[in-house]
Amino acid sequence: MRPQRLVDLLAVVALVLLGLSAYLTWVSADPGNGRPVVHFNGYTITKAPVTLALAAVVAVVVMKLAGTLLRRVLGALVVLLGFAAIAVSLSVRPEGPELSRLRPELSDVIADQVTQSLGVAPWFALAGGGALVGAGLLALLTAHRWRRATQRYERDPAASPADQWKAIDAGEDPTL
Predict the structure, then answer these.
(1) CA 156 to chain centre
(2) Which residues pair with residue 117 across a beta bridge?
(3) What gap in Å lies between CA 122 and CA 18, rounded to an integer?
(4) pLDDT band (50, 70, 90) for residue 129
(5) HEC states along the chain?
(6) Cβ neighbours for 101, distance < 8 A, ≥ 6 positions apart
(7) What pLDDT does residue 116 have?
(8) From CA 82, how far away is CA 62, in angstroms rounded?
(9) How far apart are CA 73 and CA 111, in angstroms?
(10) What is the predicted pLDDT for the residue at 85?
(11) Residues in Cβ contact with 116 at an 8 Å cutoff, skipping those fewer than 6 apart
(12) CB–CB of 90/122 below 8 Å?
């Protein structure tokens, strides 16, 4: 598989994983005493993973149109976005007062013992951040081997116009 395709695949995987982390349960709060458990999805807790994923996908799309130097800069940016997603997945653990600010129905029970449990969403965010780091590193290491966006449509500069006309008469496309 070409490095460009692998970077694209890793960026899409990261987008899916970080997008899933926004909709899956990040934290569950059990107020006890028969009150219903309150689930907080990732987008309620933090909007960072989705924002980081979208920024990384835009950077990967721009990489396809850029030259080698800009590809390397964008690859470094994607690596940084991946590390930021990993940091968010490892560090965002809301406490009781923050949860009560997000969901007012918890404010009257915060004085009681609220049991919190983590959902699977931080793991998806962690894996998505890892995929972004991989995509960025691969782009950094292989940026010099990527095809330019217009390379496919350029014609052979060594061919004379007469040779190009002969190729057209023979049914060939001289631009390939």
Answers:
(1) 38
(2) 28
(3) 9
(4) very high
(5) CCHHHHHHHHHHHHHHHHHHHHHCEEEEEECCCCCCCEEEEHHHHCCHHHHHHHHHHHHHHHHHHCCHHHHHHHHHHHHHHHHHHHHHHHHCCCCHHHHHHHCHHHCCCCCCCCEEEECCHHHHHHHHHHHHHHHHHHHHHHHHHCCCCCHHHCCCCCCCHHHHHHHHHCCCCCCC
(6) 107
(7) 65
(8) 17
(9) 50
(10) 92
(11) 27, 28, 29, 30, 96, 99
(12) yes
Q: Which sign, positive or negative, has the C-alpha torsion 84, 87, 89, 95?
A: negative
Residue listed under structure tokens 């919190």? 116
Q: Is the pLDDT of residue 154 over 60?
A: no
Model pLDDT for residues 8-37, shown as the tens digit of each residue: 999 999 999 998 988 888 877 777 677 777
Structure tokens at 149: 């966006």
Asked if 83 and 133 touch (Cβ cutoff 8 Å), the reply is yes
Backbone angles phi, psi at 113, to 5 degrees: -80, 115
Count of residues in the chain:
176
pLDDT digits (tens, 9 = 90+) for 57-97: 999 999 988 888 999 999 999 999 999 999 988 887 776 66
